Amino acid sequence: MLVALLVGFEIIARLLDGVGFMPRNFVAEKLSLVASGYPGAYDPALGYVPAPDYDGTPGSWNVRVTVGPRSLRDNAPGRPTPVPAAVVAAGGSYTFGDAVSDAHTWPAQLEGLLDQPVANGGVFGYGLDQAVLRAEMLAVEHRPLALVVGFVYDDVRRTQLVQNAGAEKPYFEVVDGRLELRNVPPSPDRPRVGQLGVVRTLLGYSYLADWIARRADATGWWYGPGFAEVQVHTDGQEVACLLMHRLRSVQESTGARVMVVAQYAARDLATPDDPRSVEDLTGTGRVLECAATAGLIAVDTLPALRARYRAGPTTFVGQYYVRAVPSAAGYRVVAEQVADALARAYGGG
Fold first, then answer.
1. Based on the number of CB atoms within 10 Å of its own CB, is 311 exposed (0-12), middle (13-18) or buried (19 or more)?
2. Are 39 and 93 in contact (CB under 8 A)?
3. What is the 3-state secondary structure (H, E, C) of 186-254?
4. Is residue 40 one of the residues assigned to a domain?
5. 271: CATH
6. Domain limits at 324?
7. What is the largest CA-CA distance in the chain?
8. Tell me, what DSSP letter sits at residue 73?
9. Structural domain total, the chain
10. Whole-model pTM over 0.70
11. Residue 97 belongs to some domain of the structure
12. Contact by Cβ (8 Å): 150, 211
């Protein structure tokens, strides 16, 4: 009798809220970057990519995001990236353009400066390892004149993870001085049972239990402790350096000039003496050195950002960043630096 009553309430709750009857763990969805409202779709090689043909306003960003059929972010709504594109951009959140609309990402602004099509292959939450893997794929598909890989130092830290923000990812291990790819294909079923516990693993499939937890103010436990990370090694710096040599192979095999662009978190400008900022700045410099040694074009946006910070330190963060990521003005700085570097590389400046 009790079971029948609970099943009845489950059906009623789902019908009233329109959640459907497909099996899904509501707790796991909240604790996974891809399933929690970000426009992502599972990918067996990369973990996830932007959901193809997406057009919406993710609640986490509150800006319009449109994604074309090839999982590339559009540079304007309803204008999918042509194939081939003259320039392909790859990277994480700072390339995808979290928190700004399509036309304000740095790849979109670069397209305007160059008057040439630029493909935005950035993906929110990516590590530098995933960014390079995707860059390799896009370089083969587009055969661009230039391949631009952007990163912040947090992307290097993510190369040490097999699970980032509750989502499984591929990663590299260093074996005898060489990179060995692991965890391919990544599991789409994460977080893991050990992270959720038996109770939430089982009851998480009940929308009624989820409904009760939300209304009983029990979300601190029900959805706790937030996005999960699983670290597998501490060799992020070495992995990043070896990834630069993988990009050199892309340059040689496709003919595209490969450019590596260092971007920075707001803390790196506002509090450069903070231990995390010191690690960011030192580590980023080493990655750029590895890129230059590998024969790639290394672009550091730090001098341009520092000049703007010194011109207005009290307003800098509010003008050039939105929460944890750059604003349209911040991405403009990146686009201008990349455009200038491309002009120098191709003899135009």
1. exposed
2. no
3. CCCCCCCHHHHHHHHHHHCCCHHHHHHHHHCCCHHHHCCCCCCCEECCCCHHHHHHHHHHHHHHHHHHH
4. yes
5. 3.40.50.1110
6. 28-188+229-345
7. 80
8. B
9. 1
10. yes
11. yes
12. no
User: From first to last of its 349 residues, what are the pLDDT tens digits of the chain?
Assistant: 765 565 555 566 586 656 666 766 665 665 566 666 678 999 999 999 999 999 999 877 789 999 999 999 999 987 788 889 999 999 999 999 989 999 999 999 999 999 999 999 999 999 999 999 999 999 999 999 999 999 999 999 999 999 998 889 999 999 999 999 999 999 886 666 566 666 676 666 766 566 666 666 655 555 655 567 889 999 999 999 999 999 999 999 999 999 999 999 999 999 999 999 999 999 999 999 999 999 999 999 999 999 999 999 999 999 999 988 999 999 999 999 999 999 999 876 5
Q: Which amino acid is at 231?
A: Q
Residue tagged 């995808």 (tokens): 96
244: tokens are 């630069």
